[in-house]
Amino acid sequence: MIKIALLGYGTIGSGVAEVLKINQESIAKRAGEEIEVKYVLDKRDFPGDPIQAKVVHDYDVIVSDPEVQVVVEAMGGVEPAYTFVKGALLAGKSVTTSNKALVAKHGAELLAIAKEKNVHFLFEASVGGGIPIIRPLNSSLTADEVEEITGILNGTTNYMLTKMTFEGLEFHDVLKDAQARGYAEADPTADIEGQDACRKIAILTSLVCGQQVEFEDIYTEGITQISPADIQYAKAMNRVIKLLATSRKAGNSYCAMVCPMLLPPEHPLYSVNDVFNGIFVHGNVLGDAMFYGSGAGKLPTASAVVADIVDIVKNQGRNIMTAWSSAKLPLLDHKLAVNRFFLRTSESSERILELFKNAELIKVPGILGETGVLTEAMTEEDYEEKAAKLSNVIQMIRVA
Ligand code: HSE
Question: Are 398 and 339 in contact (CB under 8 A)?
Fold first, then answer.
């Protein structure tokens, strides 16, 4: 019997308890042992819920109990999660977490402690919710140099953009709808400003390069500026707008960014809609691979956390090594990335074509006094130099 402790009994923590109950027998069979929740750490009490018998309010009870072998961190945020997780690892307990903020900031250090203590620090649920992506990168794709990872890594914004695309709604109306459905938080900033996707692509890039990629170094734009007019232009170009988090190998480094992009129908992420996530990986020997599924939500995320617990139980007495050192990888400046660009301007067609040779001009019936422009491929630096010569740019969206 393996005894575990849950830190936090919110959506993910209670989901983990539920998954352990729903699939109790098959999980025990696969792990080779029964798994029992011994403690739940939460500030709150849950009167009437059988979990109340396990609730503690003092972390020391958990960290000092030698019977607890696995700690599940499902609190979110960097502190006190970091202090608790570090304390658990130093006490010789394995940890699994769904917390991307914690992993993006302290992943390398926590992995090093886990290695030294011969325990595990696993974080499958921190990226892509229930979709296996961390384990595949760490164990299945180790023969490859990963040259590109591009993902729709945020379910909330994907739901919102899908709704805007299919129902022609305004950003603020779809945000209210996403909040009503429990997809977006009361404070939706991390989702809609791209910060959540930014931490996730920082984690994936760190894993494929084996070094620390600082999320602060990743150029990030959210979806707050996307309007129904942009969606109409996208439709006129037979494209969709998606919030992509992308990381491309460039020499010995990577160029990473998070921003809305226009995707053509042949793009592998074109059909990833609603709250689903999709992650495209290109390896130098593998070629292309796609990972698709439930990227957020209580049970999908808990599924990934419980799979980590099973892995920990199956691999007791050793450390599953993850190559992610704390040496910082300087990223390539995103201004050197080459893309096509779509822009909207009220400038004359002559002037547009003077600056952007061979650009396609797009007109949308009903949108007057401006022109849509689809440029040739160029660096972002070149684009900015040319765009600065226009009298105005109403909108710019990169084209995948
Ligand atoms: N807010 C996140 C999303 C939750 O919408 O994808 C999963 O990390």
Answer: yes
